[in-house]
Amino acid sequence: GTIDGYIDHRFSFENFIVGAGNEFPYAAAKAVAERPGEAYNPLYIYGSVGLGKTHLLQAIANAIVRTKPLRVAYRTGEAFTNELIEAIQTRTPEQFRERYRSVDVLIVDDIQFIAGKERTQEEFFHTFNTLHTQRRQIVLASDRSPSALEHLTDRLRSRFGSGLVADIQPPDFETRMAILKSKTKLAGVEFPEDVLELIASRITSNVRELEGALTRLSAHAVLTREPITVALAKRVIRDLLREPQQVLTIEEIQREVASFFGIPEKEMLSKKRSKNIAFPRQLAMYLAKRLTRYSLPEIGRRFGGRDHTTVLHAVRKIEKAREEDPALDATIERLIAKLEKRS
User: Fold this and answer.
1) What is the pTM of this model?
2) What is the three-class DSSP state of 285?
3) Rounded distance between C-alpha atoms, residue 158 and residue 210, angstroms
């Protein structure tokens, strides 16, 4: 196949570290690469910066170009907008349209950039429709879900959400360790286990920061010939290492919520589904996500070994309930204030 746009050929599915927080978008991306236009169309991946969205998008492009005789266009939302502006200025809109509407696969990273830009949205809407009608594959990535994108037309929002929407969560401790070990192996630099554990326990939300910490530490060690130790790490990457400030624990949240609703604390871990047990449990999961730094998989494990999707469902359910019930919203605010006093 052929690629229109710059992609890094090092990004592949083989070197993407899979964990509980990203296994769903990873599986969806692989399915799209194997059966473009058939599996999930469009595929919309969202999550915070530095979690691997771009890696997955470029892995899709690399896999398709390597295995199929298809034309792939890869752009950022900003590049798409800039090209449209240039086409308008040079009076070549038809060439612009032909370029994008004749591809087999269109991949756009940071699609949130087109929000608020009416002409770009109009053009993208028609490009989307043309490709989708012809069963050509569309893959989009953003920092938030389609429903949370502001200044986007309703018709685009509904199209973005019409296929498969998959979110990437921050990696849990085990995944962070796996990422660090993979990167050190690739770089050919040996890091002691305790140094990797320090980095993995303190840099929790961003894969890019994990990589940055490794790069800076290994460069320092090579240039100064100092051995890589915990003391060196604390000195060289101290601006990246967040002090462990998590005073509030999930167990404290469970205790407080159980006491508030008058149920035994052990019910937070039980399999019971009756409303008087399930709702307090879901609320405790929601509060754990909001008030601690634990990832969804880690929270799920603390609630009787539940799956991260169960936690995500609980979070969304409580958010919706708060919007619809002012009295419940006020009650939850009081609970939050009480818990925050502890941390």
Assistant:
1) 0.71
2) helix
3) 35
pLDDT, tens digit, 9 for 90 and up, residues 208-252: 899 999 999 999 988 998 999 999 999 998 888 876 555 678 999
The set of residues, in sequence order, having a beta carbon less than 8 Å from that of 6 and lying 6+ positions away, is: 74
Q: Is 188 helix (H, G, I), strand (E, B) or coil?
A: coil
Per-residue model confidence (pLDDT) at position 247: 61
Residues 6+ apart with CB under 8 A from 320: none
Q: How far apart are CA 158 and CA 307, in angstroms?
A: 28
Torsion of CA 228, 231, 234, 237, to 10 degrees: -30
**What is the pLDDT confidence band of residue 138, given thresholds at 50, 70 and 90?**
very high
Which tokens belong to 134? 């012809």
As separate numbers, helices (DSSP H) first and strands (DSSP E) second, the chain gives 15, 6
Q: What is the mean pLDDT of the chain?
A: 91
Contact of 17 with 175, CB cutoff 8 Å: yes
pLDDT of residue 243: 63
82-102: pLDDT as tens digits: 999 999 999 999 999 999 999
| Cα angle 61-82-72, degrees, rounded to a multiple of 5 | 20
Calpha distance 139→126 (Å, rounded): 16
Q: Predicted confidence band at 314 (pLDDT cuts at 50, 70, 90)?
A: very high
Domains of the chain: 2-167 (3.40.50.300), 173-236 (1.10.8.60), 250-340 (1.10.1750.10)
326/204 Cα distance (integer angstroms): 34
Which H or E element spans position 284?
helix 275-291
Q: Which letter does DSSP use for residue 166 in this model?
A: E
Strands (E), the chain: 2-4, 43-46, 71-76, 105-109, 137-142, 164-167
